[in-house]
Amino acid sequence: MTLASSESPTDSDDSGDLVDDEPQPEVFDAEVRNEDVDRDALKVIRRLRRYGHDAYLVGGGVRDLLLGVRPKDFDIATSARPNEVKTLFRNSRIIGRRFRLAHILFGGGKIIETATFRRDPTEDDDVDPRDEDADLLIRRDNEFGEPWEDARRRDFTINGLFYDSESNEVIDYVGGMRDVRGRVVRTIGQPDVRFREDPVRILRAIKFSARLDLGIDPPAYDAMVAQREELARAARPRLLEEILRLLRGGAAHRSYWLMWEIGALDVLLPQLSFHLDDDSDESRLLWGRLDAIDTLMRAGSLPTDAVLFAALMLGPIEEALDGVKDTTRAYEGLMGDVVETLAVPRRLKERVRTIVQAQRRLRAGKLGALPRREYFDEAATLFSLECHAKGQRRPEWLDERPEASQAAPKRTRRRRRRNRS
Ligand code: ATP
Ligand code: MG
Asked: Do the domain assignments include residue 45?
């Protein structure tokens, strides 16, 4: 790759704040082959450009391509407004109440998300981010902007790169290319401010570091520790989603170890971090179960949300239920707080309880009518994670289950379960 401009992408004034003048991007020849980019995404970009709009691939797709990882999806940022996108693509629909963007639909359920360049709306606010008591939490996100503003509103430099698929260049307003090469997660702008604006970014930093095996820039790391309590202010469904994503990312062990290390686990799941702090056998079992989840993910088998959540919380749940008569009350006593913090849907909460309670019989090998229960498959998967964690031999019945129920196809299964909850 070559450097085409030496302009600093993150000019700052004396206070270290980003300045608002339109900056010149660094431009790099990308070592990206368009064969690795989704053909439909390229088609969308070509058409937008043909009609006079600016359009780039953005976000996680570009990051993953540059890191040599297969991207999950490709997002597009464009100067076209949502209604202009809609008129250019019959197969599109406009979604979002607060920030409207277009979903362009292709075969096989593929969606190319196409959003108009937007800016950070808080920049106009009369709040001094250096004021430690100022409320910086972002509650709106709906102002259109310029490409450079769109790059800077993003969370981490590695996520702020634009890829121009026509010229094969990476347009970098945020120093992201340097961090892709250095394999480091660094916030765009001041870490404390960016984590206070949206504390879920703390979990996102953990996710990227763990999943992509990247370092965390030390000032960002310190800010994650310093701002971890802010997580309690984030929208609860977003927290649950990130908690589950961290389990599904193929690096659950590393993710939760980081969660614990920075103290985010104390804020989100104190019931679990008490267990770990004891340095008990139970903590070793937890890491073992998370390893087993990572192994399953690598094999292309995605456990359900209930299995994932139960594997995470098995220790505290079993401790709460151990030897008590009124297990319902004991379970509610433990999960009440969890539900409060993470907005766990009732259905998921009940499912977790059912499959955890089935473990006793599975351990005893007394299956009885269990194999005919519709939750058997999930209970058995949890049991197999436990066998792995304990280094125990898998009982025969575990591997005699019908193939299809051991590893259901990824996407369809997850969607169905999500819709139901
Ligand atoms: P993944 O591979 O997990 O999907 P991603 O980076 O694509 O990772 P998305 O949640 O799909 O993550 O978001 C797409 C892009 O939107 C990100 O790359 C980032 O540029 C921007 N973004 C997402 N969430 C935030 C946030 N909380 N704050 C700022 N920018 C964000
Ligand atoms: Mg994405």
From this structure: yes
DSSP E strands, 208-361: 215-216
Question: In terms of residue numbers, what domain contains 151?
Answer: 26-189
Say whether pLDDT at 406 is over 50. Answer: no
- Name the residue of 155, 162, 208 whose CB sits within 8 Å of the most ligand 1 atoms, as the mutation to test its pocket: 155
Q: Is residue 280 part of a domain?
A: yes
| Ligand closest in space to the Cα of 208 | 1
Is the pLDDT confidence value at 200 over 60?
Answer: yes
CA of 218 to the centre of ligand 1 (A): 21
In a domain, 204, yes or no: no
Closest Cα to atom 12, ligand 1: which residue? 60
pLDDT given for residue 134 in this prediction = 73
Is 242 close to ligand 1, i.e. is its CB under 6 Å away? no
416: domain CATH number is 1.10.3090.10
The pLDDT assigned to 34 comes to 84
Q: 360 Cβ partners below 8 Å, 6+ apart?
A: none
- How far, in Å, CA of 405 to CA of 402, rounded? 6
Ligand 1 pocket, residue 75 CB under 6 Å: yes
Buried b / exposed e across 39-77, counting CB within 10 Å, b at 16+? ebbbebbebbbeeebbbbbbbbbbbbbbbeeebeebbbb
Both 139 and 267 in a single domain? no
**Is it the case that residue 19 has pLDDT exceeding 80?**
no
Chain segment 353-384, per-residue pLDDT in tens: 999 999 999 999 999 999 999 999 999 999 99
Which ligand 1 atom sits closest to the C-alpha of 64?
2
Q: Do 49 and 170 reside in the same domain of the chain?
A: yes
CB 59 less than 6 A from any atom of ligand 1 = yes
Q: What is the pTM of this model?
A: 0.88
